[in-house]
Amino acid sequence: MKVFFLKTNNVCGPTRLGRTWTDTSLVSCGLKCRRMFSSDCSSFMFHKVTKLCTPGGRLSSLHPIPAVHEGELYILMSDDLNDKFSFVSFNNTTVQLFYFKTEVNYRQALEICRCFDSTLNVAKTNDKYQLFASLVKETKHDTWIGLNDIESEGHFVWVDDKQEYNTSISPSYFQGDQPDNYNNNEDCVMMRWSNLQLNDERCDKTFYFICQKP
After folding, report:
1. Rounded to an integer, what distance in angstroms lies between the CA atom of residue 48 and that of residue 73?
2. Is the pTM value of this prediction over 0.90?
3. DSSP structural state of residue 65
4. Does a cis peptide bond (omega within 30 degrees of 0) precede residue 171?
5. pLDDT tens digits, the chain, 214 residues: what are they?
6. For a 10 Å CB count at each end of the chain, is N or C smaller?
7. C-type lectin domain spans which residues (predicted)?
């Protein structure tokens, strides 16, 4: 089993899974957390002096940040990840991104990005869109983008500044029959890796996501 750890800042806290123990190392703590709680263990805290291991779930700004005795907070992933935000360039555009290759719903993606002092990826220019598309094409996974019409149906806004996206622009980033708000229940936007175009989807579906530094 491949497990990767990513140390977070102390902006957010995890849900506590209700049990703690002392462990031999950071790696052992993370591995045992995943073995015991399976995918419910998506984060953990480890104190390097006392060796206290505290398993955790999803991060949220609504949960208490790690207390001093709990140690430092880590995200636990089971896929290949860089250990930091990376600068990625396309033509004359350079952005600092972190591609999370794990599937979460839209609100979870927003919250995790917020916990890293970043936002869900936005692509307001063609260069940024093409950069985003190249990453999605490489992973071959549908991926959330920081665009939604949660607050007002049909009025899609970017998550970083609430700037409205004009769905009638030409060329549009949406695929031909989208957005369609199927069953009146599609408010969040993702990119399909098969055609690298946007589609509105149910916010409770799960996809990969990219966080972007300001």
Report:
1. 11
2. no
3. P
4. yes
5. 455 667 776 678 888 998 899 999 988 998 899 899 988 888 899 999 999 999 998 887 778 888 899 999 888 765 544 445 677 887 778 888 888 888 889 998 998 888 888 899 998 888 889 999 999 999 899 999 999 999 999 899 999 999 898 766 645 788 888 889 889 899 999 999 999 999 999 999 999 999 998 7
6. N
7. 98-212
